[in-house]
Amino acid sequence: MSFFKRLKDRFAPTEDRREELPLDELEPQEHDDQPAETYSQPAPKNDDWSFDFDDDDLMSIEEFEELEAQQIGAKFRQGLEKSRENFQNRLNDLLAHYRTVDEDFFEALEEMLIQADVGFNTVMELVESLRFEAKRQNITETADLREVIVEKIVEIYEQEDDELQAMNIQEDDLTVILMVGVNGVGKTTTIGKLAHRYRQQGKHVMLAAGDTFRAGAIEQLQVWGDRVGVEVVTQAEGSDPAAVMYDAINAAKNKGADILICDTAGRLQNKANLMNELQKVKKVLSKAVPGAPHEVLLALDATTGQNALVQAKAFKEVTDVTGIVLTKLDGTAKGGIVLAIRNELHIPVKFVGLGEKLDDLQPFDAESYVYGLFADMIENSGVETTDEDTEESNHAG
């Protein structure tokens, strides 16, 4: 099965299903005056919806997984619209201008990818791999290289251990997640959406307001806590962040919480102070809960492009970052920064922000990502989906 065909089978809804029931109608709707705990996912409204049901009138596992994959594909497709237009239009223009695979084409491809913020080192690696593949497969026309380009992008991201991609959630003990990042990148919003996500999974979630220096930071986190229905442990503005963490850990243990998400100050002006502060916080957490923090997530604003890469390098120097949350990916045309972060820093992107809704914070998946970047190209590739191929794709996904 071709790579485009596999992605199309996994993520793209058939035309009749897309027309009968838009995927938006299956997504939880967000209302400011509605408590988070009352959000629900409505049932399909169209009697002609063609899923199979078992004897108990429940959707089969296979059909549910197919629908879920299509919903995820739709989210990435919509959230990466600006980046997709940038990638696809430039790549299509390039393929139309250069019909023959030669050095001029590869140099133009390098320039295009660098402008998309894929990162210089990553671009060099990708293009070198494409040169090799073109020779190996004896590809002489650029149109025949289209699918190989997309496949190589996935390979670059997935070249390391996939287990790093999963969140380190403790099943029978308290999980502590430390959130770091400079001010203004959407760190507090990410904490709120992450709390909502785990609460929807039935977890008892609490928050710790450890950013005690920025004016309004504690109140902002409290607003999010109220919005998604989770308790926030706070102290007065200007308090020692480590003291907040100490109180939060004790409160989380006493109340049987499953997950504690800890906010931290976002100052990057003085690396020494930031390092000392984070080390102090981590010492308090690890002493109270062995192995904590189980995740150190760095929030980065995708719209800042290469500056996000600079921030990631700076934080990597002062703390052990286990994963990236790339916010505002829907607001930029330079979605290639995902590849630069992964390939040059060897830190997995664990979540991406694809919009303003509570459920628009999505776990990152390389194939979902490239589908979002190249959806039109994939769907118009001419490959047909069959029931047998769809079942095979579901098992592969």
UniProtKB/TrEMBL annotation:
Location of region: Disordered: 1-48
Q: Give the principal location in a single coarse category.
A: membrane
Q: Does the keyword Nucleus apply?
A: no
Q: Which residues make up the binding site for GTP?
A: 181-188, 263-267, 327-330
| Catalysed reaction, written as an equation | GTP + H2O = GDP + phosphate + H(+)
InterPro entries xref list: AAA+_ATPase (IPR003593), P-loop_NTPase (IPR027417), Signal_recog_particl_SRP54_hlx (IPR013822), SR_rcpt_FtsY (IPR004390), SRP/SRP_N (IPR036225), SRP54_GTPase_dom (IPR000897), SRP54_N_sf (IPR042101)
Q: Which UniProt keywords apply?
A: Cell membrane, Cytoplasm, GTP-binding, Hydrolase, Membrane, Nucleotide-binding, Receptor
Task: Spell out the SMART domains in the cross-references.
Answer: AAA (SM00382), SRP54 (SM00962), SRP54_N (SM00963)
Which parts of the sequence belong to the SRP54-type proteins GTP-binding domain? 348-361
Localized where?
Answer: Cell membrane; Cytoplasm
Q: Which HAMAP family match?
A: FtsY
Q: What does this protein do?
A: Involved in targeting and insertion of nascent membrane proteins into the cytoplasmic membrane. Acts as a receptor for the complex formed by the signal recognition particle (SRP) and the ribosome-nascent chain (RNC).
Q: Summarize subunit and interaction data from the UniProt record for this chain.
A: Part of the signal recognition particle protein translocation system, which is composed of SRP and FtsY.
Q: What PANTHER family does this protein's entry cite? A: SIGNAL RECOGNITION PARTICLE RECEPTOR SUBUNIT ALPHA (PTHR43134)
What is the recorded name of this protein?
Signal recognition particle receptor FtsY
Organism in which the protein naturally occurs: Macrococcus carouselicus
What gene makes this protein?
Answer: ftsY
